[in-house]
Amino acid sequence: MENQGASVVITHQIIDGKQNEYENWLNEIGPLCRNAVGHLDWQIIRPIPTLTSTYTVIIRFDSIEHLKDWMDSQERRRLIEKVGSLLDKGDNYFIKSGLDFLFAPLDAKVKIPARWKQYLVTWSAIYPLSVSIPLIILPILRILGIPQYRLIDSLFISGTIVLLMVYLIMPYYTKLIKKWLYK
Question: Where does residue 105 fall: left (phi above 0), alpha (psi -120 to 50 degrees), or beta otherwise?
């Protein structure tokens, strides 16, 4: 089976007044994670001051095996132990493989839908976009003076489709059909 990559979403709720210590800890664990075998990406969503205290860390690896190796590593365990006194609710995370994050319900205890359902849902969302987005993007590119070149046109079209799928369409579409999708 083709390797689809894997992501982990980690949420840490920090005890009030311990944010600076947590930031120092992130500076310690970050380079170790980024140097782990198979690491692809590391993103931190910081809390909004005076409103939230939750940090969300999203880490992507090239395979579920490499991700699990990092999550179970001695280095990570040691650093999780070290940060424990700063966390209000412990080290919470969930792991997803491939594009499963597009179908991940907010309740991580719900199982991921069958692959054939993911296929149908993704296809049914991408098809109308692949027909309509070029009709919008191509005239805009020409107005901006970008010459017609298939690779550049495809870059903008595919980028727009992925952006819409991840941030706008799939979160609402999967909510709309959740009874069927997660059945």
Answer: beta
Rounded to two decimals, what is the model's pTM?
0.54
With a CB cutoff of 8 Å and minimum separation 6, the contacts of 101 are 7, 9
Token digits of residue 166: 């991840």
Average pLDDT of the chain, as a whole number:
85
Residue 130 CB contacts under 8 Å (≥ 6 apart), including other chains: 157, 161
Q: What is the CATH number of domain 6-98?
A: 3.30.70.100
Angle (CA) 28 44 29, round 5°: 15
Residue boundaries of the structural domains of the chain: 6-98, 115-181
Over residues 119-134, the pLDDT tens digits come to 898 899 999 999 999 9
The number of beta carbons lying within 10 Å of the beta carbon of residue 136 is 10
Which tokens belong to 70? Answer: 């990092």
**Which residues have CB under 8 Å from 67's CB, separation 6+?**
6, 7, 8, 38, 59, 61, 95
60, 3 contact by CB (below 8 A): no
Query: Percentages helix, strand, coil for the chain, rounded to the nearest 5?
Result: 55, 15, 30
